[in-house]
Amino acid sequence: MRRTSTTLADGRELIYFDDSEPFVSGAATRRLDDPRPLPDRFTPIVGDDGVALPIESPELRRDALTGDWIPMAASRMNRTFLPPADSNPLAPAKPGAAYSDGEIPAEDYDVVVFENRFPSLLTVPGTVDEVALTDGEALFPVRPANGRCEVICFSADSTASLASVSPQRMRTIIEAWADRTAELGARPGIEQVFCFENRGKEIGVTLHHPHGQIYAFPYLTPRTLAMLAQARDHHARTGRLLGRDVLDAELRSDKRIVLETEHWVAYVPFAARWPVEVHLAPRRDVPDLPALTDAERADLATAYLELLRLLDRFFVGPDGEAIPLPYIAGWHQAPVREGRELSRLHLEVFSVLRAPNKLKYLAGVESGMAAWISDTTPERIAARLQEVAR
Hints:
Blueprint: E1 2-7, E2 13-18, E3 45-46, E4 52-53, E5 59-62, E6 69-72, E7 111-115, E8 132-133, E9 141-144, E10 148-153, H1 167-185, E11 192-199, E12 211-217, H2 222-238, H3 242-253, E13 257-260, E14 264-267, E15 276-282, H4 294-311, E16 327-332, E17 346-351, E18 353-355, E19 358-359, H5 364-369, H6 378-389
Antiparallel strand pairs: 1-2, 2-7, 3-4, 5-6, 5-9, 7-10, 8-9, 10-12, 11-12, 11-16, 13-14, 14-15, 15-17, 16-17, 18-19
Protein backbone atom coordinates (compact mmCIF):
# COMPACT_ATOMS: atom_id res chain seq x y z
CA MET A 1 0.00 0.00 0.00
CA ARG A 2 1.14 3.56 -0.72
CA ARG A 3 0.07 6.59 1.32
CA THR A 4 0.07 10.04 -0.31
CA SER A 5 -1.04 13.21 1.47
CA THR A 6 -2.06 16.50 -0.11
CA THR A 7 -3.98 19.67 0.74
CA LEU A 8 -7.34 20.69 -0.68
CA ALA A 9 -8.06 24.23 -1.88
CA ASP A 10 -9.49 25.33 1.46
CA GLY A 11 -6.62 23.87 3.49
CA ARG A 12 -8.10 20.52 4.52
CA GLU A 13 -5.90 17.44 4.34
CA LEU A 14 -6.64 14.60 1.89
CA ILE A 15 -4.80 11.26 1.90
CA TYR A 16 -4.80 8.62 -0.84
CA PHE A 17 -4.28 5.01 0.22
CA ASP A 18 -3.40 3.08 -2.95
CA ASP A 19 -3.13 -0.68 -3.44
CA SER A 20 -3.25 -0.81 -7.26
CA GLU A 21 -0.66 -0.12 -9.95
CA PRO A 22 0.85 2.07 -11.16
CA PHE A 23 0.20 4.01 -7.94
CA VAL A 24 1.26 1.58 -5.23
CA SER A 25 4.78 1.33 -6.69
CA GLY A 26 5.07 5.09 -7.17
CA ALA A 27 5.23 4.83 -10.96
CA ALA A 28 2.30 7.26 -11.02
CA THR A 29 0.69 9.63 -8.50
CA ARG A 30 -2.91 10.61 -8.00
CA ARG A 31 -3.81 14.22 -8.70
CA LEU A 32 -2.61 16.35 -5.78
CA ASP A 33 -3.83 19.84 -6.71
CA ASP A 34 -7.40 21.01 -6.06
CA PRO A 35 -8.62 23.47 -8.73
CA ARG A 36 -11.69 24.65 -6.82
CA PRO A 37 -11.86 28.40 -6.02
CA LEU A 38 -12.44 27.79 -2.32
CA PRO A 39 -11.19 30.26 0.30
CA ASP A 40 -9.07 28.98 3.15
CA ARG A 41 -11.47 27.60 5.73
CA PHE A 42 -9.90 29.71 8.49
CA THR A 43 -10.08 33.00 6.56
CA PRO A 44 -11.91 35.63 8.65
CA ILE A 45 -15.41 36.42 7.43
CA VAL A 46 -16.09 40.06 6.59
CA GLY A 47 -19.50 41.18 7.81
CA ASP A 48 -21.87 43.73 6.26
CA ASP A 49 -20.22 46.42 8.39
CA GLY A 50 -16.84 45.66 6.81
CA VAL A 51 -15.42 44.21 10.01
CA ALA A 52 -13.53 40.92 9.67
CA LEU A 53 -14.61 38.34 12.21
CA PRO A 54 -12.31 35.40 12.97
CA ILE A 55 -13.55 31.86 12.40
CA GLU A 56 -14.74 30.34 15.66
CA SER A 57 -14.42 26.70 16.67
CA PRO A 58 -17.58 24.70 17.29
CA GLU A 59 -18.12 24.64 21.03
CA LEU A 60 -18.66 21.98 23.64
CA ARG A 61 -21.23 22.53 26.35
CA ARG A 62 -21.37 20.32 29.43
CA ASP A 63 -24.72 18.93 30.53
CA ALA A 64 -24.81 19.52 34.28
CA LEU A 65 -27.30 16.68 34.79
CA THR A 66 -25.25 13.94 33.09
CA GLY A 67 -21.71 15.32 32.81
CA ASP A 68 -21.76 14.74 29.03
CA TRP A 69 -20.00 17.13 26.67
CA ILE A 70 -22.32 18.10 23.77
CA PRO A 71 -20.80 19.58 20.57
CA MET A 72 -22.67 22.58 19.18
CA ALA A 73 -21.93 22.59 15.44
CA ALA A 74 -24.53 24.80 13.78
CA SER A 75 -22.63 24.85 10.48
CA ARG A 76 -23.62 21.22 9.88
CA MET A 77 -27.19 22.36 9.18
CA ASN A 78 -25.92 23.35 5.71
CA ARG A 79 -24.13 20.07 4.90
CA THR A 80 -24.81 18.14 1.69
CA PHE A 81 -28.05 16.13 1.81
CA LEU A 82 -28.88 13.37 -0.71
CA PRO A 83 -27.42 15.09 -3.78
CA PRO A 84 -28.27 13.89 -7.32
CA ALA A 85 -25.98 11.27 -8.83
CA ASP A 86 -24.19 13.82 -11.00
CA SER A 87 -23.36 15.97 -7.95
CA ASN A 88 -21.89 13.31 -5.69
CA PRO A 89 -19.07 15.06 -3.75
CA LEU A 90 -17.42 11.71 -2.91
CA ALA A 91 -17.13 10.54 -6.51
CA PRO A 92 -13.83 10.88 -8.35
CA ALA A 93 -13.42 13.81 -10.72
CA LYS A 94 -14.84 13.30 -14.20
CA PRO A 95 -12.16 13.04 -16.90
CA GLY A 96 -11.88 16.29 -18.84
CA ALA A 97 -14.77 17.89 -16.98
CA ALA A 98 -14.80 21.52 -15.93
CA TYR A 99 -14.66 22.49 -12.27
CA SER A 100 -17.19 20.80 -10.00
CA ASP A 101 -17.46 20.88 -6.23
CA GLY A 102 -16.29 17.34 -5.63
CA GLU A 103 -14.00 16.57 -2.73
CA ILE A 104 -11.57 14.27 -4.56
CA PRO A 105 -9.48 15.82 -7.38
CA ALA A 106 -8.27 12.49 -8.83
CA GLU A 107 -10.18 10.78 -11.65
CA ASP A 108 -10.00 7.47 -9.78
CA TYR A 109 -8.88 6.24 -6.37
CA ASP A 110 -8.62 3.11 -4.24
CA VAL A 111 -9.28 4.43 -0.72
CA VAL A 112 -9.19 8.08 0.25
CA VAL A 113 -9.49 9.96 3.56
CA PHE A 114 -10.08 13.69 3.92
CA GLU A 115 -11.13 16.17 6.56
CA ASN A 116 -14.88 16.67 6.69
CA ARG A 117 -16.05 19.94 5.15
CA PHE A 118 -18.84 20.15 7.73
CA PRO A 119 -17.20 18.92 10.94
CA SER A 120 -18.70 18.51 14.39
CA LEU A 121 -15.22 18.91 15.88
CA LEU A 122 -12.63 21.34 14.53
CA THR A 123 -9.40 22.71 15.94
CA VAL A 124 -9.11 26.34 14.86
CA PRO A 125 -5.54 27.67 14.91
CA GLY A 126 -4.91 29.87 17.92
CA THR A 127 -7.83 28.50 19.89
CA VAL A 128 -6.95 27.76 23.51
CA ASP A 129 -8.62 24.67 24.96
CA GLU A 130 -9.83 26.19 28.21
CA VAL A 131 -13.12 25.88 30.04
CA ALA A 132 -15.10 29.10 30.44
CA LEU A 133 -18.33 29.75 32.31
CA THR A 134 -21.22 31.07 30.23
CA ASP A 135 -22.98 33.99 31.94
CA GLY A 136 -20.64 33.38 34.87
CA GLU A 137 -22.66 30.30 35.81
CA ALA A 138 -20.70 27.35 37.24
CA LEU A 139 -23.32 25.01 35.78
CA PHE A 140 -22.79 26.33 32.23
CA PRO A 141 -19.21 25.36 31.33
CA VAL A 142 -18.13 25.66 27.70
CA ARG A 143 -14.91 24.86 25.81
CA PRO A 144 -13.81 24.74 22.17
CA ALA A 145 -14.81 21.56 20.29
CA ASN A 146 -11.19 20.95 19.34
CA GLY A 147 -10.83 17.69 17.45
CA ARG A 148 -11.05 16.37 13.94
CA CYS A 149 -13.67 14.71 11.75
CA GLU A 150 -12.62 12.78 8.68
CA VAL A 151 -14.42 10.99 5.85
CA ILE A 152 -13.08 7.69 4.48
CA CYS A 153 -14.27 6.59 1.02
CA PHE A 154 -14.14 2.81 0.59
CA SER A 155 -14.49 2.79 -3.20
CA ALA A 156 -14.61 5.12 -6.18
CA ASP A 157 -17.73 3.26 -7.35
CA SER A 158 -20.83 5.01 -6.00
CA THR A 159 -22.93 1.88 -6.57
CA ALA A 160 -20.64 -0.33 -4.47
CA SER A 161 -20.80 -1.07 -0.75
CA LEU A 162 -18.21 -2.03 1.81
CA ALA A 163 -19.48 -5.62 1.60
CA SER A 164 -18.73 -5.70 -2.13
CA VAL A 165 -15.07 -4.67 -2.04
CA SER A 166 -12.30 -7.23 -2.52
CA PRO A 167 -10.30 -8.65 0.42
CA GLN A 168 -7.30 -6.68 -0.87
CA ARG A 169 -9.28 -3.44 -0.78
CA MET A 170 -10.69 -4.31 2.65
CA ARG A 171 -7.13 -4.75 3.88
CA THR A 172 -6.29 -1.27 2.55
CA ILE A 173 -9.28 0.14 4.45
CA ILE A 174 -8.04 -1.54 7.63
CA GLU A 175 -4.60 -0.03 7.05
CA ALA A 176 -6.21 3.39 6.62
CA TRP A 177 -8.20 2.98 9.88
CA ALA A 178 -5.02 1.99 11.72
CA ASP A 179 -3.06 4.87 10.17
CA ARG A 180 -5.65 7.44 11.16
CA THR A 181 -6.08 6.00 14.66
CA ALA A 182 -2.35 6.27 15.32
CA GLU A 183 -1.92 9.73 13.80
CA LEU A 184 -5.02 11.33 15.27
CA GLY A 185 -4.40 9.77 18.67
CA ALA A 186 -0.96 11.43 18.75
CA ARG A 187 -2.44 14.92 18.35
CA PRO A 188 -2.55 17.22 21.41
CA GLY A 189 -5.81 17.10 23.32
CA ILE A 190 -7.27 14.03 21.58
CA GLU A 191 -8.67 11.45 24.01
CA GLN A 192 -10.37 8.92 21.74
CA VAL A 193 -10.52 7.90 18.06
CA PHE A 194 -13.70 6.32 16.69
CA CYS A 195 -13.84 4.75 13.20
CA PHE A 196 -17.37 3.99 12.05
CA GLU A 197 -19.72 3.50 9.11
CA ASN A 198 -23.39 4.38 8.69
CA ARG A 199 -25.13 2.50 5.88
CA GLY A 200 -28.65 2.91 4.58
CA LYS A 201 -31.33 5.58 4.44
CA GLU A 202 -32.96 4.04 7.51
CA ILE A 203 -29.86 4.99 9.50
CA GLY A 204 -30.04 8.56 8.20
CA VAL A 205 -27.23 8.44 5.64
CA THR A 206 -27.13 11.65 3.59
CA LEU A 207 -24.66 10.39 0.95
CA HIS A 208 -25.14 6.94 -0.55
CA HIS A 209 -21.55 6.63 -1.76
CA PRO A 210 -19.77 3.86 0.21
CA HIS A 211 -17.97 5.71 2.97
CA GLY A 212 -17.40 5.93 6.69
CA GLN A 213 -16.18 8.50 9.17
CA ILE A 214 -13.40 8.89 11.72
CA TYR A 215 -13.83 11.14 14.76
CA ALA A 216 -10.98 12.30 17.00
CA PHE A 217 -12.68 13.36 20.23
CA PRO A 218 -11.22 15.79 22.80
CA TYR A 219 -13.15 13.93 25.51
CA LEU A 220 -14.22 10.38 26.30
CA THR A 221 -17.70 9.59 25.00
CA PRO A 222 -20.44 8.47 27.41
CA ARG A 223 -20.41 4.91 26.03
CA THR A 224 -16.67 4.61 26.53
CA LEU A 225 -16.88 5.99 30.07
CA ALA A 226 -19.57 3.46 30.94
CA MET A 227 -17.55 0.58 29.49
CA LEU A 228 -14.43 1.71 31.34
CA ALA A 229 -16.35 1.83 34.62
CA GLN A 230 -17.47 -1.76 34.10
CA ALA A 231 -13.96 -2.84 33.14
CA ARG A 232 -12.47 -1.20 36.24
CA ASP A 233 -15.00 -2.85 38.52
CA HIS A 234 -14.38 -6.25 36.92
CA HIS A 235 -10.61 -5.88 37.18
CA ALA A 236 -10.84 -4.79 40.83
CA ARG A 237 -12.87 -7.89 41.66
CA THR A 238 -11.08 -10.47 39.50
CA GLY A 239 -7.76 -9.02 38.36
CA ARG A 240 -8.74 -9.88 34.79
CA LEU A 241 -9.62 -8.04 31.59
CA LEU A 242 -13.37 -7.77 31.10
CA GLY A 243 -13.27 -7.96 27.30
CA ARG A 244 -11.18 -11.11 27.46
CA ASP A 245 -13.55 -12.77 29.92
CA VAL A 246 -16.62 -11.82 27.83
CA LEU A 247 -15.11 -13.38 24.70
CA ASP A 248 -14.10 -16.53 26.60
CA ALA A 249 -17.59 -16.84 28.08
CA GLU A 250 -19.19 -16.51 24.64
CA LEU A 251 -16.84 -19.18 23.26
CA ARG A 252 -17.66 -21.54 26.15
CA SER A 253 -21.40 -21.02 25.67
CA ASP A 254 -21.10 -21.35 21.86
CA LYS A 255 -24.80 -20.52 21.41
CA ARG A 256 -24.30 -17.10 19.91
CA ILE A 257 -21.09 -17.60 17.89
CA VAL A 258 -21.77 -16.77 14.23
CA LEU A 259 -18.28 -16.70 12.69
CA GLU A 260 -14.81 -17.93 13.64
CA THR A 261 -11.46 -17.53 11.89
CA GLU A 262 -7.89 -18.08 12.99
CA HIS A 263 -7.67 -14.65 14.63
CA TRP A 264 -11.27 -13.38 14.98
CA VAL A 265 -14.59 -14.35 16.55
CA ALA A 266 -18.01 -12.86 15.76
CA TYR A 267 -20.87 -13.35 18.21
CA VAL A 268 -24.23 -11.91 19.16
CA PRO A 269 -23.69 -10.45 22.66
CA PHE A 270 -25.56 -11.99 25.57
CA ALA A 271 -27.50 -8.77 26.25
CA ALA A 272 -27.89 -7.46 22.68
CA ARG A 273 -29.96 -4.28 22.49
CA TRP A 274 -30.74 -4.09 18.78
CA PRO A 275 -32.92 -6.25 16.48
CA VAL A 276 -29.69 -7.31 14.73
CA GLU A 277 -26.41 -6.93 16.60
CA VAL A 278 -23.02 -8.63 16.28
CA HIS A 279 -19.64 -8.04 17.90
CA LEU A 280 -16.38 -8.97 16.19
CA ALA A 281 -13.35 -9.40 18.46
CA PRO A 282 -9.74 -10.54 18.06
CA ARG A 283 -8.66 -13.73 19.81
CA ARG A 284 -5.57 -11.93 21.11
CA ASP A 285 -5.84 -9.10 23.63
CA VAL A 286 -5.08 -5.88 21.74
CA PRO A 287 -6.07 -2.30 22.61
CA ASP A 288 -6.63 -0.86 19.14
CA LEU A 289 -6.29 -1.29 15.40
CA PRO A 290 -2.64 -0.13 15.18
CA ALA A 291 -1.70 -2.96 17.57
CA LEU A 292 -2.88 -5.68 15.18
CA THR A 293 -0.23 -7.85 13.50
CA ASP A 294 -0.05 -8.31 9.73
CA ALA A 295 -1.62 -11.75 10.09
CA GLU A 296 -4.49 -10.37 12.19
CA ARG A 297 -5.13 -7.59 9.68
CA ALA A 298 -5.14 -9.97 6.73
CA ASP A 299 -7.54 -12.30 8.54
CA LEU A 300 -9.74 -9.38 9.55
CA ALA A 301 -10.12 -8.37 5.88
CA THR A 302 -11.83 -11.66 5.04
CA ALA A 303 -13.68 -12.01 8.37
CA TYR A 304 -15.18 -8.51 8.13
CA LEU A 305 -16.43 -9.08 4.59
CA GLU A 306 -17.92 -12.46 5.48
CA LEU A 307 -19.72 -10.93 8.46
CA LEU A 308 -21.21 -8.19 6.28
CA ARG A 309 -22.37 -10.76 3.74
CA LEU A 310 -24.09 -12.75 6.49
CA LEU A 311 -25.84 -9.61 7.70
CA ASP A 312 -27.00 -8.82 4.17
CA ARG A 313 -28.78 -12.19 4.09
CA PHE A 314 -30.49 -11.77 7.47
CA PHE A 315 -33.76 -10.42 6.03
CA VAL A 316 -35.50 -11.42 2.79
CA GLY A 317 -38.35 -9.66 1.05
CA PRO A 318 -41.66 -11.14 -0.19
CA ASP A 319 -39.93 -12.08 -3.44
CA GLY A 320 -37.32 -14.10 -1.58
CA GLU A 321 -34.55 -11.62 -2.41
CA ALA A 322 -32.14 -10.66 0.36
CA ILE A 323 -32.54 -7.15 1.78
CA PRO A 324 -29.29 -5.18 2.22
CA LEU A 325 -29.12 -4.46 5.95
CA PRO A 326 -28.99 -0.83 7.09
CA TYR A 327 -26.45 -0.73 9.88
CA ILE A 328 -24.01 1.19 12.02
CA ALA A 329 -20.58 -0.39 12.46
CA GLY A 330 -18.07 1.11 14.88
CA TRP A 331 -14.67 0.17 16.30
CA HIS A 332 -14.37 0.41 20.07
CA GLN A 333 -10.70 1.11 20.69
CA ALA A 334 -8.71 1.91 23.81
CA PRO A 335 -8.68 5.61 24.67
CA VAL A 336 -5.48 7.52 24.01
CA ARG A 337 -4.58 7.81 27.69
CA GLU A 338 -7.18 6.90 30.29
CA GLY A 339 -7.96 3.20 30.77
CA ARG A 340 -5.83 1.77 27.94
CA GLU A 341 -4.77 -1.17 30.10
CA LEU A 342 -8.43 -2.05 30.72
CA SER A 343 -9.63 -1.76 27.12
CA ARG A 344 -9.89 -4.42 24.43
CA LEU A 345 -10.52 -3.80 20.73
CA HIS A 346 -13.82 -4.94 19.26
CA LEU A 347 -16.23 -3.99 16.49
CA GLU A 348 -19.95 -3.54 17.06
CA VAL A 349 -22.39 -3.80 14.14
CA PHE A 350 -26.10 -3.23 14.69
CA SER A 351 -29.26 -2.39 12.78
CA VAL A 352 -32.53 -0.60 13.50
CA LEU A 353 -34.36 -2.91 11.05
CA ARG A 354 -36.48 -5.38 13.07
CA ALA A 355 -38.31 -6.88 10.07
CA PRO A 356 -38.57 -6.07 6.35
CA ASN A 357 -39.86 -2.48 6.07
CA LYS A 358 -40.20 -2.22 9.88
CA LEU A 359 -37.87 -0.17 12.07
CA LYS A 360 -37.21 -0.23 15.77
CA TYR A 361 -37.99 3.27 17.00
CA LEU A 362 -36.34 4.50 20.16
CA ALA A 363 -39.49 5.71 21.89
CA GLY A 364 -40.25 6.68 25.50
CA VAL A 365 -38.12 4.45 27.69
CA GLU A 366 -35.18 4.08 25.27
CA SER A 367 -34.92 7.75 24.27
CA GLY A 368 -36.12 9.26 27.53
CA MET A 369 -34.44 6.98 30.06
CA ALA A 370 -31.82 5.01 28.05
CA ALA A 371 -33.63 1.94 29.38
CA TRP A 372 -33.38 -0.55 26.53
CA ILE A 373 -36.00 -3.14 25.69
CA SER A 374 -35.19 -5.80 23.11
CA ASP A 375 -37.84 -6.92 20.62
CA THR A 376 -36.13 -10.28 20.12
CA THR A 377 -33.50 -12.43 21.83
CA PRO A 378 -29.78 -12.70 21.11
CA GLU A 379 -30.23 -16.44 20.56
CA ARG A 380 -32.76 -15.82 17.77
CA ILE A 381 -30.44 -13.32 16.11
CA ALA A 382 -27.57 -15.79 16.28
CA ALA A 383 -29.70 -18.67 15.03
CA ARG A 384 -30.69 -16.70 11.94
CA LEU A 385 -27.08 -15.75 11.17
CA GLN A 386 -25.98 -19.35 11.69
CA GLU A 387 -28.72 -20.43 9.30
CA VAL A 388 -27.70 -18.07 6.49
CA ALA A 389 -24.05 -19.07 6.98
CA ARG A 390 -24.74 -22.69 6.02
